[in-house]
Amino acid sequence: MVTDSKLQQLFHEPIEQIKYLDPGYSGHASDVWLVKTASEEYVVRSSRWTEAPSREFWWGIYDLFGIDPRRMCYFEANAAMLSSIADIPVPRVHTHTVIEATEYLVVEKMNGKALQSFVGQSDALLHQLGVWLARVHLKRCDYFGNLACTQIERQESFHARLSQTIRQLVERDYWNDSKIKALLDAMILELGDLPMPDHFCPVFIDLDPSQFLIQDGMLLAVVDVEAYAVGPREFDFVGLEYVLDEISATSFLNGYSTILDPPDISNYRKAYRYFYLLLGVQGSVDLDRWFAQQALFRR
Question: Does the pTM exceed 0.85?
Fold first, then answer.
């Protein structure tokens, strides 16, 4: 654990109080502290990783998109992109500092409380989410990789590279899961036959309500943005089918459609769901149960 003396090096004023913020789930990329000085409160973020990622989610993101959770430049680049979208604020980065080979970000403390679920929220909040995501998707890219530009690859090679990542994920982490292994070759063949998506943009690989803060019934901020990558916007819609229901999906689409027509994900759903299962975006889930999830976005 980082010592108080290290955190003090990040501030000109004496630190009065430090509180470790536990996200409540395992596998998160960053240690996060709430730091109070005499004049203000800040949030400090630092990577929990000392070696390259080797398992499921972060290895898959590292391999396909080049996002290294040991480095803070990805959070910084993602926050810079999101700061241009007024609908839902993102914490402003105050400083990026290296102490004893470890990177630290001092960022703005945002008010509000963590959102527990999108299901059951008001039409207004879900409409707000849809408008915000569509505005993110307006930032089209002619490559896939990451916003810090440490890895940029041609769109045309996306499915071939995705296939490589999928195969390695299965061989590394699911060698003893007979159902996942049995489906691997069929998924690789399916990816080879799929047309290349025509809309690449920033996508939130672990899009989940816990990444957002809520206040007075509306989304106040998006705070955990390490895993923003550049890929097909279909990824976000595939992920959303696991955190919305029919009612919330309708309100979300009403907002999204004011900015962009939503994509038709019917051809991509199964292969992309398979990849998201391997990443463990919703934890460890049985394959049959994962594929049985209701398809919410249909044409």
Answer: yes
